[in-house]
Specification:
This protein is mainly beta and 217 residues long. A hairpin with a 4-residue loop joins strand 10 and strand 11.
């Protein structure tokens, strides 16, 4: 698991465009509602062998409180925080200074120019080679029936008489954890908990993302 100085959970809201006040250029941005997150647990090298913060996002509504089991209720009670819908652990490079119950907001990224965003890509289900790997289609004339088929998958000649590992074939596509690094921070709106980054972020709208400081500085 990658380590960072700071991290914050959020939701991808979608894409839009903003204009640079200096040059007037149009910038494509992705809007992320980052936080506010509650610190539900603190882990240090002395007690746990590594440094991390467990963050909670989105309080559980009253009608759904009965779905929170007793073990989690006790966990939240010890941290003096209300039950949260999402719990994620963020590895840190140094022991954290935050305490359980503390609220982390998007304001932590106001002084940062670059961030990394981790998300889960959209699930595409079972897909063929053309969609999954970008293969070219076969000829459609002269009686050819190899239009969207992958073609030969075995080795040349008699050896090896098997399909090699890692062969690009049809299969499950999407729904994978992906990290987009070194995205430029265009704007931070602490009042509405919004973070605008330049470029694309993996996942659908309302998809869960983790925003952290860039490992490349």
């Amino acid at each position: 698991m990658r380590q960072c100085h700071t991290g914050l959970l959020g939701r991808k809201l979608g894409s839009t465009q903003v204009f640079d006040s200096a040059t007037g250029a149009c910038i494509h941005v992705t809007v992320i509602q980052a936080g506010p997150c509650r610190v539900t647990q603190v882990k240090t090298r002395e007690t746990d062998g590594y440094s991390a913060l467990q963050l909670g996002l989105e309080e559980v509504s009253k009608p759904k409180l009965k779905r929170v089991n007793r073990s989690r209720q006790g966990h939240f009670r010890r941290a003096t925080v209300p039950p949260m819908r999402v719990l994620k652990e963020v590895r840190l490079r140094q022991d954290p200074t935050a305490a359980p119950g503390e609220v982390l907001t998007v304001a932590m990224f106001q002084e940062r120019k670059r961030v990394d965003v981790v998300g889960t890509t959209k699930g595409r289900g079972f897909s063929g080679c053309i969609r999954r790997w970008g293969f070219k289609r076969g000829p459609m004339t002269h009686g050819s029936k190899n239009v969207r088929e992958p073609g030969a998958t075995g080795g040349k000649g008699e050896v090896p008489t098997k399909v090699g590992k890692g062969k690009r074939m049809a299969g499950h596509y999407g729904n994978a954890r992906r990290t987009v690094r070194n995205l430029e921070v265009v704007r931070v709106d602490p009042d509405r908990h919004l973070l605008l980054v330049r470029g694309a972020v993996p996942g659908p709208r309302r998809g869960l993302v983790l925003v952290s400081d860039s490992v490349r500085g």
